[in-house]
Amino acid sequence: MTSRDAPEPVLDSTDARLLLELTTSPRATGVELAARLGLSRNTVQARLARWEAAGVLGSFELRVRPRALGYRLSAFVAVVVDQHRLDAVVGDLAEVPEVTEVYGMTGPTDLTVRVVARDTDDLYRIAGQILRIPGVVRTNMSLVMQELVGPRTEPLLKRLAEPD
Predict the structure, then answer these.
(1) Backbone angles phi, psi at 80, to 5 degrees
(2) SS3 annotation, 14-67
(3) What span, in angstroms and rounded, lies between the C-alpha atoms of 98 and 117?
(4) Is 33 exposed, middle or buried (0-12, 13-18, 19+ CB in 10 A)?
(5) Whole-number Å distance between alpha carbons of 152 and 95
(6) What is the pTM of this model?
(7) Which helix (H) or strand (E) holds 103?
(8) Do 77 and 127 contact (CB within 8 A), yes or no?
(9) Residues 15-52: pLDDT tens digits?
(10) Alpha carbon distance 131, 7 (integer Å)
(11) pLDDT tens string 99-122
């Protein structure tokens, strides 16, 4: 069973409150979190362990912004794929360091790929690299001009944390 096949854990309002506190103070200890939320240390530790085992929390690398690494440009690439080679194409895309996300889509394209680049020449190179992947039929790239609302879950956590 892969992580995609595993059932998603269902979080409750206590989980949401704890996650919101971690959003505010990501380096807080279990003891500090327990005191702030009026929970026992064991409850906090058990929930943290359960989240870790279930993959609820994303990896730490997601907190590192590509811009800080010198990748000033970001683009979304719509990719049409020969369906018989879809898994191989996804595997090849995962080998491209500048590919930060790949999503399977419905509609006229099969994949949406987020890429980062140092400059326009680098973006051109990456686009060519994607086009050379066996099974990629065509691509259409859209350059990100500005991130207006970044990845977030805080509003969802706040809604879940509200008492019923």
Answers:
(1) -100, 130
(2) HHHHHHHHHHHCCCCCHHHHHHHHCCCHHHHHHHHHHHHHHCCCCCHHHHCCHH
(3) 7
(4) buried
(5) 26
(6) 0.82
(7) strand 99-104
(8) yes
(9) 999 999 998 998 999 999 999 999 999 999 999 999 98
(10) 35
(11) 999 999 999 999 999 999 999 999
